[in-house]
Amino acid sequence: REGIELLADIAVNASFVPDELQSEKKVVFEEMNLVEDDPEKFLGRRLSEVAYTPHPYGRPILGTRPLIQALTRERLERYYKKHYVPGNMVLVVVGAVKPADVRRLADAAFGRLRSGSPQRSPVGAPPALGRGRRVDVDRSEAQAYLGLAWAAAPTGNPDIYAVDLLTYILGDSPSSRLNQVVRERERLVSTIEASYIASEKGGLVAITARLDAANLGRAEATVLDVIRRVRAEGVTEAERQRALITAEALYAFDIETAEGLARTYGQAETTWTLDDELAYLSRLRRITAAEIQAAARKYFGDESYARVRFLPRGGAR
């Protein structure tokens, strides 16, 4: 009971003490510094910005320094009152509890909150990607970093399952295609991996690598050739099975704790649906090799990607 009441109190009774606000700004600035000092994290952020801008998905989660510096208590409170309303909230309880007891406590704690409907500005789909989305950034690291990103299926689109498996096949493990070809065979990169984030309005598949700057051109061309071969020849049943095993293992790891299960279910309720979340693995298992190839043909074009390169300052390129 105390935990639910505390959450309800936080949800509507934050006071935003001026001195604490200034102190928190310093914390946010330090978090920004940590991201910018980590080349892999910063590459992910810059790649998302380049791929999505001017769409809201391209905005940094922490905001910008000018925005945070100029943020006033009054503006923060207006945002808080506008968006922290019951229609925007999801309460997830995981543990040795009875659903009826939780519902009673939740009604008592959250039922008295002020009413209000969710207020969101209409947001369309992210922009199409093309050759115009190319950014080079000078950095102090001795090695270069390469990031490529393709627009992919959003949540709610049945293609997400095929894209998910394709991402595992491309770059999730030492046996993945990109690791075997670009790293092991061609020796062009030190590390390479692929990731996929699906959101309500759009998805993004990113391929990132750490390498010598002299190999940037060849590495990019080789990545594109690997994808080209998937489009032309498809994937093997063995690759599909390995991708499934990886997906199942990662999912089990994500929900093995009460905290992890609550986070997974809460995210599902706010970004797609709990029913979709519960059906995720069963739908993934039904995806065929032909569907994975079709996803590669649909989303992974030779020109339709964003690119960010981190270049050693003053080094060979």
Describe, in plain words, how this protein is organized in 3D.
It is a single chain. α7 (160-171) packs across α10 (237-254), α8 (177-185) runs antiparallel to α9 (216-233) and α9 packs across α14 (289-299). The radius of gyration is 22 Å and the shape is globular. It starts with a helix and ends in a 5-residue tail after the last strand. By secondary structure, it is of the alpha+beta class. The chain has helices at 2-13, 18-37, 39-52, 65-70, 73-83, 99-110, 160-171, 177-185, 216-233, 237-254, 258-271, 274-278, 280-285, 289-299; strands at 134-139, 144-152, 191-198, 203-211, 306-312. It has a 5-stranded mixed beta sheet, with helices on both faces. The protein contains 14 helices and 5 strands. The model has no long low-confidence stretch (mean pLDDT 92). The protein folds into 2 domains: 2-110, Cytochrome Bc1 Complex, Chain A, domain 1 (2-Layer Sandwich), CATH 3.30.830.10; 134-312, Cytochrome Bc1 Complex, Chain A, domain 1 (2-Layer Sandwich), CATH 3.30.830. β3 (191-198) and β4 (203-211) form a beta hairpin. Helices cover 53% and strands 12% of the residues.
CATH topology of the largest domain: Cytochrome Bc1 Complex, Chain A, domain 1
Helix content: 40-55%
State the CATH class of the largest domain. Alpha Beta
> What would you say the CATH architecture of the largest domain is?
2-Layer Sandwich
- The total strand number stands at 5
The number of distinct helices, counting runs of at least 4 residues, comes to: 14
N-end to C-end Cα span: 60 Å
